[in-house]
What does this fold into?
Amino acid sequence: MSRRLLIALALLLALLGAGAAGAQSPPGGAGATARAYAIRVIAPGLPTSTTPVVASPPQSQVAAGGAAFTFNAADGTPVVTTGAYMATANADASGNPFATASAEVIDLSLFNGEVTASDVVARARATARPGTASGDLSGGGVSGLVVDGVAQTATSGRIALGDWGYALVMEQSGAPVSAPPSYHGFVTGLDIRLTADHGGLPAGTEIQVGYAEASAQAPAATQPPPQLPKAHPKKPKKTAKAPEPKTTPGVPPSLLPNRLPPTISPRLTAGPYVFPVYGPSSFADTFGAFRGDVPGNWHHGDDIFAPLGAPILAVAKGTVFSVGWNDVGGNRLWLRDGQGNQYYYAHLSAYTPAAVNNAHVRAGTVLGFVGNTGDAEGTPYHLHFEVHPVSLLGLGYDGVVDPTAILEGWKHLQDVRFAAAAGWAPVPPGGSGAPQAGAILLQASDISNASGLEPGALEKAARSLAVEGSAGLLGLQQHPPRGPVFETPTRAP
It folds into this structure.
């Protein structure tokens, strides 16, 4: 009996070991997971210290103005300090699974300034569809890395840290698997390894800065139903011919409203352009994702996640219009650049004095602050952003393109800087980051569509609009909106 018991225990342990090993790979069946964190310190003999870890599903986000980790109780000097940081995770297993994760740390300092970096970003993405899966670990990087006062130019690989350790820059691993079709990848922006005791931490310590991980497994391919033998068909009765679908002159039927536009990359030449959110942020390609239960109700842009009150910027020199409220977009506005392209911003927590109708603004002008107003209430704070090229304005609100590639290009540009005369200026390196919004709009009605003092005009305009992009999309042939608008921007006292 004892021998049987030993054999049974050995089999049980083997099964448990196989289960644990399998847990490291993408989950069985179609699915998607994402995970991210800003800082983690793993030291032998000490509890692991970490900023909050976010995981999805469900969609999750964390953002803070800074962090500090102290291990040497003798003098209390922090081993790790940061400025603002954030981490986001978003995964969805329905339809074609996808997962995105990102982490960003600003103004990093290790061991009282021995190692510093102005910005550390890690991004991971995984997508899958029947028969295939893929991933992407690009889009991150380490900026302003300095070791012992010497600037480092390495964009990846290993950097020596004196005689006490080394740093791995953009450490990553990820590859698609064919059976079953899946992808699992991770990236660490900056990974510090101690080979000797240093700064109060023992040898073997690992300090991870900016970690993102994403996995997706393809759904099973659906088999077509078996074809039954065809019976001799009866002669069909004559019926009234269905009316031909309505078309718009010069617009292909595939581009009519409530249908996704083709994948195109418009050439935007009215730059220079800047990224629409200042400071730490994260976004994923959710363009075209289904929204609600109304046919044709799909996501017309991307969501850029950032802390509450993060400044929202004009992406180009242009004219602000349709500033106001609707039930879906909450506090929203539109911007038209010199080429005629239009950009839609939604879910703002508040506006700045520059956000008034017909205001002419420069690229980088602060128009408002990140929030979650409208139907985004209760979700992580973010900016909903859309790009409507001038060539597609004739399609109305559905004349929109996937902004992901455009945003990725803008994100890699150097951060803009603002003069104090603009009404807001970023805190110098080492400060606490951008200020939060000075006010949160709780309730409002948009009367910018009122056409003067006609009877009932104000009452009609005060009714909440139900379309997210409402009042935007002014074609070149249309006239500017009339009504109670400011002709020039005004400044608050």
In short: The longest strand covers residues 115-129. Residues 48 and 99 are 26 Å apart (CA to CA). The chain has three helices and 27 strands.
